[in-house]
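Kindly draft a sequence, keeping tokens residue-aligned:
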Amino acid sequence: MNTPITVVPVGQGSLPVAVGAGLTSRGMVRARNEDSILTDPTGTLWAVADGMGGYGNGDVASDIVIDCLAQIPDGVDPGSALVARLKEANDIVVGLQRTPGMERMGSTVVAVLISRAVAHVAWAGDSRAYLLRGGRLRPLTRDHSVVQEMVDRGELLPEEAESHPESHMVTRAVGGGPDLEVDLVVVPLAVGDRLLLCSDGLTRCVYEQTLETLLREAKGPEEACQKLLREALESGAPDNVSTIAVLIQER
């Protein structure tokens, strides 16, 4: 288990600021951890990249995603910058697939860039972002996956999705093809809001109701990450598990 990383950013004016923490673990079954996480010392940028274990070299792909995102400079348009860096990561990963021994690399990703108390959320695949507001948890992302498409078409009930044999199959990922489509949502933030970013290793073994309870009851981001990861490990954690918790608070 990695040590939590807590950051207190520099804010502007009377805008609220973000305090966060992140944890990642190989889980209880996998031989290595192919997830990568990003926590920003300025409190601005947060990301989880889930290397696709079935593809091989997933750790390489997820590291590339995080490295590209970490190069976003200050003062840029948040949404455009996120999409541009993820497309850049996609180009690098696709290029590396032509190298002998490096074929079939991929990574899902969810990233949040906070600018002037607004969260810009970008994602590809089934890594997720949630917002806890007023004690209620709601998803900010929608999985790019085979089972989510089946749910959307009415062929599968939402509660059946996690146990479906194709639940691990994503329809978008960094390295999945020459052109990466990135979804983006913009969410104004308020004091007291909590953000959760995670790989599917967390959501596959911890119900959303439990995520809500643990995130709500935690005293702060470090405790939230510790409790969420512990819950996943106690539930068997067959996959790598990564979680980032961010609290929006007054200066």
About this structure: The chain has seven helices and ten strands. The beta strands are 17-25, 35-39, 45-51, 107-115, 118-124, 128-133, 136-139, 183-188, 194-198, 241-249. Confidence is low (pLDDT under 50) at residues 1-12.
